[in-house]
Amino acid sequence: MRYTLAVILMVVGVVVGGLGILQKTLWAPDDQITATTEIDADTPAVVVDPGMLNLYETPATLEAKGSGDLTIAQAPIENVDAWAGNSPVARVTGLAADGGLTVKSDNGDSKMPSPAGADLWTSEVTGTDSVKLDWTEDANRTGFLIAGSGEPGDVKTVTISWPNHAETPWAIPLMIIGGALFVGGIVVLFFNRNSAKKEKNRRTARQERRRKLAEFGTAFAIVPVLALSACGPEELPKPEPSEAPSSAVAGVNDDQAKRILDSVAEDIKAADKKTDDSELEKRATGPALQQREAAYKVKKKVEKQKLPPAVANEKVVVNYSAATDSWPRMTSLITSAGNDTQLLVLTQEDPRSDYKLWSQTQLVPGTKLPDIPDSRQGSALLDPKTKDFVTTPEKAVSDYAKALGSGQDSKEAKKFESDDFSKSIWKNQAAQKKSAEDGKAEVSYKYTPGKEIVAQGTAGDAAVVTGVIEAESTISPESVDGRTGTLTLSTPQKELTGSDSTQKPVTTKTTQVLTFLVPKDGKVRLIGGLETLSGAELK
């Protein structure tokens, strides 16, 4: 029995140290936490809810496998759901107890187009047969849409993984305790082998060893329990996205704005090169489409006639994003290229449509704009009839049209700050009237405000308003005692009417797209415009 304590200490040391080593090797947790799910073959797309990639510490990886070109697109979940629309999708909502992902099927009644390259996304990644997205951001309201061509079965599996930072706090202490016990057993064995004490001392030593054995036996019983208790089941984390916004948020972020701008500029440049209406319609609508379509027709008859300026896309000076949560959407960008600064109004008909250029105005050099709301917040879209300013946006356009026709001394003209555009119009009118009188002719003008108006709020007490005015100037030959004079026509009227001279009135038409700053008090100011020739005809 002399060696009993030594043996027990050494055995306990081996067992306790072994437990520590196992926690660092065979029992060590995986480097990653991984959850995966298979996608039903009848489903064309997958939506991953906000917060899913933030269930554990990031960086997280979202991976999809399937067939063909696959896309993972991200956007606020409200936009993702709007894109999904009535299409059937598999929605990833949480973790399953078996280590997989919980999936809820949303039934639908239509297919889904490929989401690749859509203007709605804040960003996207693509791949063939498999695609990965690395995520390090906060959850916020970001959702993800995964799809291929839009056909069912393109996406076969979805996997989310996180780094596993699980610790084994008992591993090192157990190895230290086990080593200490083992060494202690060797020491006891050494001293026992050299013991030559008397029987009394041997009995005392045996009693002492029994007492220590009882103490170490208790520790041996407790330590494994502690070690095993750390491996108990944990409650599965649940997604914690930001709360849904109580009001409309910015529709386009800064990166998205530049991507959309470049696409619009490139497509319109291609259409301009071929003067192709069908190509133009892919990226232009409203007044911008009207101006360029008319310019194409003029260009085909008058070769030297200039087209409207190219869309300035070297730099986004201000992302004048509108705060909106519905469609059609309107938003604006202030852009530049060289010395040309433009205000572009863009519109998106529905979630799956590309943004199109609605209007393009060149800002007056030296224009000082009021503070614009932060692009992360967005600015309010205003009702054209709102009475929150010195005049309504609708009436600002209408009054300017009347001022152009009535002259600089009219009551309407006095509502506006002096600007070079109206001055040039009135100067040209005076010159044309004098020339007409010298040629025994008459000239008249007509300015008709359009109904299409876009108004956005600023960070201060003002609104930026863009509207359209259709302008006509008509020259009529003098008619005396039944005898009518003859007008000699020059370029571009000559080519557009097909006549060098005529005894009929000649009407030249232009389209003016104008941008105003409408304050709370004071005078309205013209800050930008673009006038284009839209045609000429004999009446």
TrEMBL record:
<feature type="domain" description="DUF8094">
    <location>
        <begin position="252"/>
        <end position="528"/>
    </location>
</feature>
<dbReference type="InterPro" id="IPR058407">
    <property type="entry name" value="DUF8094"/>
</dbReference>
<feature type="transmembrane region" description="Helical">
    <location>
        <begin position="170"/>
        <end position="192"/>
    </location>
</feature>
<feature type="transmembrane region" description="Helical">
    <location>
        <begin position="213"/>
        <end position="230"/>
    </location>
</feature>
<feature type="compositionally biased region" description="Polar residues">
    <location>
        <begin position="485"/>
        <end position="501"/>
    </location>
</feature>
<keyword id="KW-0472">Membrane</keyword>
<feature type="region of interest" description="Disordered">
    <location>
        <begin position="478"/>
        <end position="506"/>
    </location>
</feature>
<keyword id="KW-1133">Transmembrane helix</keyword>
<dbReference type="Pfam" id="PF26366">
    <property type="entry name" value="DUF8094"/>
</dbReference>
<protein>
    <recommendedName>
        <fullName>DUF8094 domain-containing protein</fullName>
    </recommendedName>
</protein>
<keyword id="KW-0812">Transmembrane</keyword>
